[in-house]
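Worked example (supplementary).
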Amino acid sequence: MIKEFKSVKEIFGPLIFVERVENAAYNETVQIILPNGEKKRGQVLETSKGIAAVQIFGSSAGLDTKETRIRFTGETLSVPVSDEMLGRVFNGLGEPIDGGTPITAQRKLDVNGSAINPVARAELHNFIQTGVSTIDALNTLVRGQKLPIFSASGLPHNELAVQIARQATVQGQNEQFVVVFAAMGITHSEASFFMQDFEKTGALERSVLFLNFANDPSVERLVTPRIALTTAEYLAFEHDMQVLVILTDMTNYADALREVAAARQEVPGRRGYPGYMYTDLASIYERAGQIKGKKGSVTQIPILTMPDEDITHPIPDLTGYITEGQIVLDRDLHRKDTYPPVDVLPSLSRLMNQGIGAKKTREDHAGVSQQLYAAYAEGRSLRNLVAVVGEEALGEKDRKFLAFAEAFEKKFVQQGRNENRSIEDSLELGWQLLADIPETELKRVKPEYIQKYGAKYRKQ
Amino acid sequence: MGVISRVSGPLIEATGMRGNQINEIVKVGDLTLMGEIIALERDKASIQVYEDTSGLKPGEPVEGTGMPLCVELGPGLLGSVFDGIQRPLETIRSQQGDFIARGVYVNALDRNKKWDFKATAKEGDSVVPGDVLGEVKEYSIRHRILVPIGVSGKITSLKSGKFTIEETVAEIAGKKIIMLQCAAVRNPRAYKEKKHLEPPLITGKRIVDSFFPLAKGGTASIPGPFGSGKTVNQTDLAKYADAEIVVYVGCGERGNEMTEVLMQFPQLTDPRTKRPLMERTVLVANTSNMPVAAREASIYTGITLAEYYRDMGYDVALMADSTSRWAEAMREISGRMEEMPGEEGYPAYLGKKLAEFYERAGRITCLGSDERTGSISVVGAVSPAGGDLSEPVSQATLRVTKVFWALDANLSRRRHYPAINWLKSYSLYHSELREWFEKNVAPDFGELRTRAMTLLQKEAELQNIVQLVGPDALPEKERLVLEATKMLREDFLQQNSFVEEDAYTPLPKQYLMLKTILHYFDKANAALALEMPLAKIVSIKEKEDVARLKLVPPEEVEEKAKELMKAIDCSLEVKTHSTQ
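After joint prediction of all chains, the assembly is encoded as:
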């Protein structure tokens, strides 16, 4: 029951208002046929008797209020999915752009998905080894978690993301992750960085890429992560795959959301972002998890650039309230040429405790991690004191902490872009660094573990 | 029967609604989605819809039910998990699968289960609303069946036996009484009178009980930026608070967190009754990706369930995590209705709604002739944007709650948990409860607390100086203060929820821990005055034992503390003739 109308009343940014419509459905997709025959897609944002507000995916250039035809499809936005999508590259609306054949759909799914029933969620406790010490040892990622990277312009978050995508394994099983990669508003050079890396390392075969470029219409960005997550859910829950979803850059997504809200003349919330941004972001981030009785899982690593490196900006702020922790990248570390520049102090993984310990990683993991953290925090705060009173004013013990912080950044945080450290290696490295601190100060690790794993004792 | 005229997200407008009432529940569209009328103008109604509205079209029907938003009350609530409009999530899962579908109508309570009803009143008794007719055993709770509001007179029939919640258990003045009741969620349930708040809600969290206590029937807010531990604190309170019933409302929060609660609570035991925690808990879970209008309702659903158990004469604790998400839900609906916005886009009535909600807390005399006392304590988490407490939800909440536990990102960054800032937090119940603590814990409890707080305050001042000149520049007496406050912070205030012995500290143990630390401080001061070197004072080995007091089992702590204080006396004794 497709209905077509030629009654465009108003075109305003990414919105078209169509008059004399017979009952358009909320959220239904429309086809927009330009006077020159070109076709575009759109979605109904608001519908009332006789008038519908349609958000257009793509540029509104070439639209007019005379000849443009709007065709209502009667369906909500859905995407064809198939496990053939692995190894393929799509645009932000899910259309192939790698020159390959169209996808034969196994299913056609609503991109908005449905909420997982909270009682159907499984408890998350499978450790994911990323090979990055600051994540594995100190901010452990578990299967089904959503752990964003809070970055800023000019920091190597993309490098870190591909490194994680390349190296992530579920420990012991050597089961590799399938990567669903959704890029929103990234530049062509960034995109080719990802593409080349994925191709070079062979990761492309087990990846699905959705690319919305910086010069693509921003409204499309609102759909890209949803298409990616619908695909991810399909692969995870119907094909039992372990799926890692990388979403970059959520800041561009939020800006697109703001753009549409402004065009609709909605009452703005903080910094002009709409009041429902929390709910909107949650409808993306909450699509991570594991379901009882199903083998697959969806793990999310969203990446966002904090405007002006301000962690209280609405985008990182609302994200932090929804996600299960955050990995924060730091400009100072980056300046010192430390890669990955992860500042472990504000970083956090809320699900870490569930994924570590005996049988999962190693019995001493929690203790070592807390000790490394505490010692580094101590060293960092001493740095401030040294700036005021000078290093000479410090006692011997304090100087050791100061030296520890330095060594921690140089050896533990710092690692190669292709360096894949096992969790044992990371913990070992931690013990080596802790060996330089007086044993009486190691209050966070059980003494028996010091005896068992401490660098000093193991050499003998 | 009305007709949809406009659809905008969770808000729809319908015409032909003359005669329908404000707050009436309606079935919207061909999918019969559940909605509530929130505004009326002539024959046009604004309706918030509790489910996703995708696919709704103008022209589809809207049907009134004649009922306001209600919850079902009766045996079977405990141990259940509901969504924001009291649909049982377990049942929905078994019927619909792992993802939540739309247009589902499921009874909140099991209609087939037979409960063993024991009559406690007698046939021929004259009863008034609120009187106890009998009880059924719901796990270890004696679930009292009360005379409903609007019913009074002689009991003409009453029998014990096995009944479903829809079967008649009694007849009063010709009216049949069943165990199932329905109650509108937006109106507070009736009670006789509000009472003075007296006993504290004991939580086993040292900083809460000793420093910033919450009275039974009181209200508290926990505002804090993300990662400061709101949810961990809330779940800890739900686990250990000495309430008989706990209602936990997960309002617009993470799905995986609800899963954690769901997995943990059946396995953890109540420290007092030794029964699984889930048996005293009702969960209302409306996670952040579930429909926003149902999130708005979830808070009311939760508090109405709490009131139901309060009316039986129980102490109920309600945790709402997070009230900010509830306020945001109101903001979203208000924005869609194009209401004139107040501060930061929140509706102008935000403060009123928050106040109304917190006013439903309290310690009350229940209806009925036996003068039962029940209470609801409310703890609301607040998630201020950017951690900035000047935002409207935090401010409106602070105006109506009496206890403020200020979560501090700096503390959590230093892994000091619970990350409650002792200088910013307050409890207005403190003076009211002081007498209770002195009578029931120890006569000098109030004094110890004041001294400890004064020291911590002093520490903050001294820290400013240390930042500039380093700790060695301070006089010895003040360095001793820093030593004592370090002990207060690390050995008393810090408490690890993940270590079994430490997670819950009974009041007498809290008192002894505090007393031991201050005892050390007093003796150390005396020793210092008699010129014992500071280095020696601060390095006595008993200090380590003070730190270990946390892990001493409660029944041994009295003896241990006594020994320890003696040992401290010995180690710090200065052998001169000037000591008497």
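Two points are worth noting when inspecting this output. The first helix of chain A runs from residue 133 to 138. The two ends of chain A are 80 Å apart (CA to CA).
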